[in-house]
Write a structure and sequence with these properties.
By secondary structure, this protein is mostly helical. The chain has a domain of 78 residues. It is 52% helix and 0% strand. The protein is built from eight helices and no strands. Helix 4 crosses helix 5 and helix 5 runs antiparallel to helix 6.
């Protein structure tokens, strides 16, 4: 069974796209919608936590909304109850790690250089 294809973002971070450019020619990064505003079902404190997470991690996209919601709820719970259980703290750490919000994971995040190069824009205008 062949190996899975390495995503272009991972290849650019690890330098694989420079080492073997022919493997990655013709491939582009997937354009995704921005994170957007917090859902109305969140409390005021949870909305503030959502906006804080969005500000701290500008690379979050629309597809990250559910995990940002979980992280916002856990952040508010941590602020209200400093004796929050170890399982909840581990879940918050896992959410932050999944979103690239820890120092080790942040090094894996690549932000797009040119936001004006959106192929969908010509059809929406």
């Amino acid at each position: 069974m062949p190996r899975r294809r390495k995503p272009l973002a991972v290849a650019s971070v690890t330098g694989a796209d420079v080492k073997n450019p022919q493997r990655y020619s013709g491939r582009s990064n997937l354009k995704v919608a921005p994170l957007g505003e917090p859902p109305k079902r969140l409390s005021d404190a949870e909305r503030d936590a959502w906006l804080e997470l969005a500000d701290e991690m500008p690379w979050l996209a629309h597809s990250d909304r559910k995990i940002v919601e979980v992280a916002a709820k856990l952040t508010v719970r941590l602020a209200a109850d400093t004796d929050m259980g170890v399982n909840a703290l581990a879940q918050l750490r896992m959410c932050l790690s999944s979103m690239g919000g820890t120092p080790a994971d942040r090094s894996k995040v690549v932000l797009p250089d040119d936001e004006d190069d959106d192929p969908l824009a010509e059809f929406l205008n």
